[in-house]
Design a protein that fits this description.
The complex is a heterodimer of chains A (116) and B (424).
Chain A lengths: L1 E10 L7 H20 L3 E6 L7 E6 L2 E6 L7 E11 L2 H15 L3 E5 L5
Chain B lengths: L3 H23 L2 H22 L5 H23 L4 H15 L3 H6 L2 H12 L6 H11 L5 H7 L4 H17 L12 H20 L10 H17 L4 H15 L24 H17 L4 H14 L8 H14 L3 H15 L1 H13 L15 H13 L3 H14 L3 H14 L1
Helix pairs in contact in B: 1-2, 1-3, 1-6, 2-3, 3-4, 7-9, 7-10, 8-9, 10-11, 10-12, 11-12, 12-13, 12-14, 13-14, 14-15, 15-16, 16-17, 16-18, 17-18, 18-19, 19-20
Classes of the chains: A alpha+beta (116), B mainly alpha (424).
Keywords (chain B): Sigma factor, Transcription, Transcription regulation
Pfam families (chain B): DUF6596, Sigma70_r2, Sigma70_r4_2
GO molecular function (chain B): DNA binding; sigma factor activity
């Protein structure tokens, strides 16, 4: 089994879907999540708050420094993620497609590095 | 005496099969490839004195498997982290010492090669990587050969192949034929790769040589293999028919001095009758199934062309109708351009020119279509020919100039220059 991170990206200036649309999206995502759980592939999932809530921890002149804001200013940000544990990329892509169908946002599928 | 050509032929025929079988055993493309190459290196040394074994493929596979096991064993000893390698050895060890050659022979070996094609053409890999990997792993072409064939610098091609193999391994792209539900999507990529290999072979897109025959022959071999393994897919049949009917005309496409001969001027006695018969039979089979797709329609168009024993006998009405069908399925500018050539024969050059202009003005939206049609020498060459037939000589000359400027292939350029010269 291999763990895959499905990263969900959203535009920074996203026009928020209406409350009605959001309810529908959440219900669809819930349904897919339940399927992932029933298939035994579920590890963890979460949605991130707005990039404006981010704080960067870095080093300046050997001292730890905190900086307000996201690490890089981008047009699209990581908005949430799902971690699954499946046999291979095809299985991971199957769930990513299902989630994409529910959310409609672009997503990146990437295995976690593991030696064996 | 065993000459090197014979070993080279066995290499071409058996390389992909051996890599496929080894990949199934070890789950590692690199290991499989290295082991098969080592096995062929051993064959080059031993066969000239020992003679070619009764089953060269079995010999290669067994030798390669032993080499791969040796390597895993060495790595397992060197690095304690390779526990899995050791586990794999335990699993493989007994069966190989008792000789699995017989199993190998009777097993569904050809399915392994199909598995390899589908792995190379996985949609998670970019199209250029799909082509390069298929040529490399199935055709046994060296990286410099692939780089030359696809007109990419060798370093770029090496990087592309390494990256694609790394992705297959790292992202765990499965080594299998996809489930039925995924098949149409995957099959499209597989067919596209094989046709690309064929086209690159049939008409090298640039360079001095018009034809790279070994590439076209390899694509036909892959097409035959795919049809053998998927006899119920009409588009597979269509693609093979298309390649055979195109290849059949190859002997007549060039003069002895390497000049391009257009279809209308070709000596039809020089066409390969055997390939034509085989291709036409495949087209007939497709028609009976009545599930037309782009490859089948293109094959049918080619069949209509080769049906005519003289150019005057060409059934343009049928060809035009097939192009209409093809354009409805696949409205690319290139199909539109070819359709216009058939329109010219039925409705005259003016109607065709209108169709060409319209196609040229159409914005290009498809990602696979390279650049705008206006940037293609074929667009200007077709326009030039139609303008010539309409007696609009000055415009025709200008169109020839544009076509000549845009043509990358020397043989095509020479042909256009001759055409232009005939006009005055």
């Amino acid at each position: 089994m291999t763990r895959y991170l499905i990263s969900i990206f959203q535009p920074s200036a996203a026009t928020q879907p209406s409350a009605e649309e959001l309810t529908k999206i959440m219900a669809d995502v819930d349904a897919v999540n339940t399927e992932i759980k029933n298939a035994g592939a579920w590890v963890f999932a979460g949605g991130l708050d707005d990039p404006s809530t981010a704080t960067v921890v870095t080093t300046s002149n050997g001292e730890p420094v905190l900086i307000d804001g996201p690490y890089v200013e981008l047009k699209e940000y990581l908005g949430g993620f799902t971690l699954i544990d499946v046999d291979d990329l095809d299985a991971a892509l199957h769930w990513a497609r299902r989630l994409h169908g529910a959310i409609g946002l672009p997503m990146e599928v990437r295995p976690l590095y593991n030696e064996f | 005496m065993i000459d090197e050509d014979e070993i080279a032929r066995i290499f071409r025929d058996e390389y992909g099969r051996a890599v496929s079988v080894l990949t199934r055993s070890f789950g590692d493309l690199d290991l499989a490839e290295d082991a098969v190459q080592e096995a062929f290196a051993a064959a080059v040394q031993r066969w000239p004195t020992d003679g070619i074994p009764p089953s060269p493929a079995g010999w290669i596979i067994t030798t390669a498997r032993n080499r791969a096991i040796d390597r895993l064993r060495r790595e397992a000893q060197r690095d304690s982290k390779h526990a899995q390698a050791a586990a794999l050895l335990n699993q493989l060890g007994p069966s190989t010492s008792s000789g699995t050659l017989a199993d190998e022979e009777e097993g569904p070996v050809s399915d392994d090669r199909l598995r390899l094609i589908f792995t190379c053409c996985h949609p998670a890999l970019g199209a250029p990587a799909q082509v390069a990997l298929t040529l490399r792993l199935l055709g046994g072409l060296s990286t410099p050969e692939i780089a030359r064939a696809l007109l990419v610098p060798e370093a770029t091609m090496a990087q592309r192949i390494v990256r694609a193999k790394g992705k297959i391994k790292g992202a765990r792209i499965p080594y299998r034929i996809p489930a039925d539900a995924d098949l149409p999507d995957r099959l499209r990529a597989v067919l596209a790769v094989i046709y690309l290999i064929f086209n690159e072979g049939y008409l090298a897109s640039s360079g001095d040589r018009l034809v790279r025959d070994d590439q076209a022959v390899e694509a036909i071999r892959l097409g035959r293999l795919l049809l053998e393994l998927m006899p119920d897919e009409p588009e597979v049949r269509g693609l093979l028919a298309l390649m055979l009917l195109t290849q059949a005309r190859r002997p007549a496409r060039m003069t002895a001095t390497g000049e391009l001969v257009p279809l209308a001027d070709q000596d039809r006695d020089r066409w390969d009758r055997q390939l034509i018969m085989e291709g036409q039979q495949l087209v007939q089979d497709c028609i009976r199934r009545n599930q037309p797709g782009p490859y089948q329609l293109q094959a049918a168009i080619n069949a209509a062309h080769v049906d005519a024993t003289r150019v005057a006998d060409t059934d343009w009405a049928q060809i035009r109708q097939l192009y209409d069908q093809l354009y409805a399925l696949n409205p690319t500018p290139m199909v539109g351009l070819n359709r216009a050539i058939a329109v010219a024969e039925i409705d005259g050059p003016q109607a065709a020119l209108d169709a060409v202009e319209e196609t040229g003005n159409r914005p290009v939206s498809r990602r696979m279509e390279q650049g705008s049609l206006v940037g293609s020498h074929l667009f200007h060459a077709v326009r030039a020919d139609l303008l010539r037939r309409l007696g609009r000589t000055d415009e025709a000359l200008a169109a020839y100039d544009q076509a000549i400027e845009l043509a990358d292939n020397q043989a095509e350029r020479d042909h256009l220059v001759r055409r232009r010269a005939e006009l005055g």
